[in-house]
Amino acid sequence: MESLIEDGRWAVLESDAEAKIAVKGVVTKFEAGASGGGLNVGGLSDRLGARAGVSGQKATVVVSLRFVDRETGRVLLIVAGEGAAGAREATAGVTDGYTGARAEARAFRNTPMGEAAHDAIRKAVAAAAAKADRLV
After folding, report:
1. Would you say 48 and 100 are in contact if contact means Cβ atoms under 8 Å apart?
2. Is position 3 within any domain?
3. Which of 25, 32, 81, 108 has the fewest CB atoms within 10 Å distance of its CB?
């Protein structure tokens, strides 16, 4: 049902055989840990030590879309979209001051890469829609 042309990077669905414009999407930037940081605090009493912390990270993705006239090979439009998303993690722990026994808990929300990629694609498509007159 699907065939590839040129060097395997252009996908053309056979049902799109009459399409006049081909669209090529490329990820041009991919940073899983573009930024991040955290804070941990703790204290110790006679019997019990406790600590808690939070941390986070930010991911970024840039997607470029190229619109090409399939008959002439001429590039009609190039647009890009940059997406970013963040994730957070929380930790907590206690330590018995006499025995040294420890207990810890961590909670992590999903990694931000998928959300950042979706955001980048959405922005690139919106940029293309805003310039759709160049594709006619």
Report:
1. no
2. no
3. 108
Task: Read off the amino acid at residue 35.
Answer: S
The 3-state DSSP class for residue 62 equals strand
- Number of residues that this document lists for the chain: 136
Report how many domains make up the chain. Answer: 1
Residue 35 in any domain: the answer is yes
Amino acid letter, 66: R
Q: Residue 89 maps to which CATH number?
A: 3.40.50.10610
The DSSP code for 46 is S
pLDDT digits (tens, 9 = 90+) for 11-47: 555 555 677 888 888 888 888 776 677 777 777 676 7
Residue 70: left (phi > 0), alpha (psi -120 to 50), or beta?
Answer: alpha
Rg of the Cα atoms in the chain: 24
Tens digits of per-residue pLDDT, 84-134? 888 888 888 888 877 878 888 887 766 778 888 888 998 998 999 898 888
The answer to whether 92 and 39 are in contact (CB under 8 A) is no
Asked if the structure places residue 12 within a domain, the reply is no
